[in-house]
Specification:
TIM Barrel, alpha/beta, binds flavin mononucleotide
Length: about 350
């Protein structure tokens, strides 16, 4: 049984408590995709978390699927991220950067006219999330073998920049229907080369990128973000337990620091079957409540718990959870808006004077 406010070893580093800020895209980095002082303030406010996972951060300009999300391919971006890292470290919290390529979840209007890339030329259902006026997703172009190796090299460069920025480690975004997930799951991958077909082949890119991260960082500073429930962005897999079970076993063999799963609330959650395969730290997420989060820790269903929406609206979430204080509600209108409103202006809990 573990208390929320107790330290946890995560690979090569220790976090001061078991509360994790979930990665949250807030689209406030501007067109240059460079973190700024407003973002420093936002992360600093939430550095009561033992571990912060940054918002998804693109590894190249062509990896993007949304305007104004940050990147980490240049020295300039690394220097800008370093301000955030320093502010978080000053409060004794750890911070890893979530590295991201969206694959087919993009649009030519976000890629200087280029067609989005994917394992296979399969058009996602639906519309591009934040583009206005609304436009449907287009049919992506299947990546060549050589282009896949170029993308792996971009992941490696981003991991190196993350080191320059002073992060505590990196998290591979392999969830939510973006590029790595598109390779992994059978619905979006009908390739007939070594990156498609069998589970081993579909997991090849994920593991290749993880191995590259391990080269740069060592296994104890690498995490992977998975979404076995597979309902984002028109995803699906013929046999999720076999697919994700294989991935978790492979990650365990590599001794990586942590796995983060977004699926806890699902009725048919695979978590109970997946977690025993992994000896590193496990971070549970999705629709947790103050009570369910504590129960998960008490029952050792997970080593740490992560909040998204509640952390947006409650910068002092640790204190609120510890003392059963009421939670602010999130303003959905300002999730991806510009500026401080609905970003850094959520109130901390004020004790009423007696
Ligand atoms: C505004 C917003 C942005 C998000 N951005 C990301 C992201 O960049 N990377 C990611 O892996 N998940 C992202 N998610 C998913 C969250 O990390 C989390 O899995 C989800 O909000 C469920 O947790 P919750 O129920 O505590 O909010 C985002 C969710 C929201 C609401």
């Amino acid at each position: 049984m573990a208390e929320l406010n107790s330290a946890l070893q995560v690979g090569d580093f220790t976090i001061k408590n078991r509360l994790v800020l979930a990665p949250l895209t807030r689209a406030r980095s501007g067109a240059e995709r460079i973190p700024n002082d407003l973002m420093v303030e936002y992360y600093q406010q939430r550095a009561n978390a033992g571990l912060i996972i940054t918002e998804a951060t693109v590894i190249s300009p062509k990896a993007a699927g949304y305007a104004n999300t940050p990147g980490l391919w240049s020295q300039e971006q690394a220097q800008a991220w370093n301000k955030i890292v320093k502010a978080v470290h000053a409060q004794g919290s750890k911070i890893v950067v979530q590295l991201w390529h969206v694959g087919r979840i993009s649009h030519p209007d976000l890629l200087d006219g280029d067609i989005p890339v994917a394992p296979s030329a399969i058009q996602p259902a639906g519309e591009v999330s934040l583009l206005r006026p609304k436009r449907p997703f287009v049919t992506p172009r299947a990546l060549s073998h050589e282009e896949i190796q170029e993308i792996v090299a971009q992941y490696k460069n981003a991991a190196e920049q993350a080191k320059a920025a002073g992060f505590d480690g990196v998290e591979l975004h392999a969830a939510n229907g973006y590029l790595i997930d598109q390779f992994l799951q059978s619905k979006t991958n009908i390739r007939d080369d070594e990156y498609g077909g069998s589970i081993e082949n579909r997991a090849r890119l994920l593991l290749q990128v993880v191995d590259t991260f391990i080269e740069v960082w060592g296994a104890g500073r690498v995490g992977v973000h998975l979404a076995p429930r597979a309902d984002s962005h028109d995803m699906g897999d013929d046999n999720p337990l076999a697919t994700f079970g294989y991935v978790v076993e492979q990650l365990d063999q590599r001794n990586i620091a942590f796995i983060f799963t977004r699926e806890y609330a699902a009725e048919d959650s695979l978590q109970p079957k997946l977690r025993p395969k992994f000896k590193g730290a496990w971070i549970a997420n999705e629709k947790l409540t103050p009570d369910s989060a504590k129960k998960i820790l008490e029952e050792n269903q997970s080593d740490a718990v992560s909040f998204g929406l509640a952390y947006i609206a409650n910068p002092d979430l640790l204190e609120r959870l510890e003392h059963d204080l009421p939670l602010n509600q999130v303003n959905f209108q300002t999730l991806y808006a510009d500026g401080a409103e609905g970003y850094t202006d959520y109130s901390v809990f004020e004790k009423l004077e007696a």
